[in-house]
Amino acid sequence: MADIFKQKQYRVVRIEKEEDMNIYDFSVPMVGGGALSLAENKGKVMLIVNTATGCGFTPQYEDLEKLYEEYHEKGLEIIDIPCNQFAGQTPGTDEEIHEFCTLTYNTKFPQMKKSDVNGENALPLYAFLKEQKGFNGFGHSPKGLAMAAMCLTRDVNYKKNPDIKWNFTKFLVDRDGNVVERFEPTADMQDVAKKVAELI
């Protein structure tokens, strides 16, 4: 009986700790070792995005770089987290991914180590992000409808869970550390840019 009470007590404490956590409690593994503590970005706007090098949305790297060049000096940080969980569209090493992005899109924002965003090996950061902003649909554009149809073939209940559905899902964090917006990959990058500009 005492053991059961201890287990219940532990669960309560653990839940309270998770609820008290904020974006600055998390870190992201960096290429070559070490980790980027998001606390280093306190007071800045962050756009956190899981990326891929061989995806139909990969050209969004160009839009992300434009955002970075326009707003980085004003306080924008882009957290680029390559991920190979969606149709294996990021098969390369961290070095190969970096080389592709810098040569193809001239990216200057830092890339993190390739990591999972769903499942048991997902970065703890992503559990937090998905809790803050769940999935809210792909919209009604042709790409949005195509993505919805694809997800439906994989999971008839895909709308009910907050998991990342595909490459280039973006979470926007304001200067106070609040997760204010989740953009699915089908979102118009002009809408993303507009929201970033509002926060800057």
TrEMBL record:
The active site is at 55. Keywords: Oxidoreductase, Peroxidase. Gene3D superfamilies: Glutaredoxin (3.40.30.10). SUPFAM superfamilies: Thioredoxin-like (SSF52833). PROSITE patterns: GLUTATHIONE_PEROXID_1, GLUTATHIONE_PEROXID_3. The keyword Nucleotide-binding does not apply. Pfam families: GSHPx. One of its GO terms (molecular function) is peroxidase activity. This is Glutathione peroxidase. The lineage of its organism: Bacteria, Bacillati, Bacillota, Clostridia, Lachnospirales.
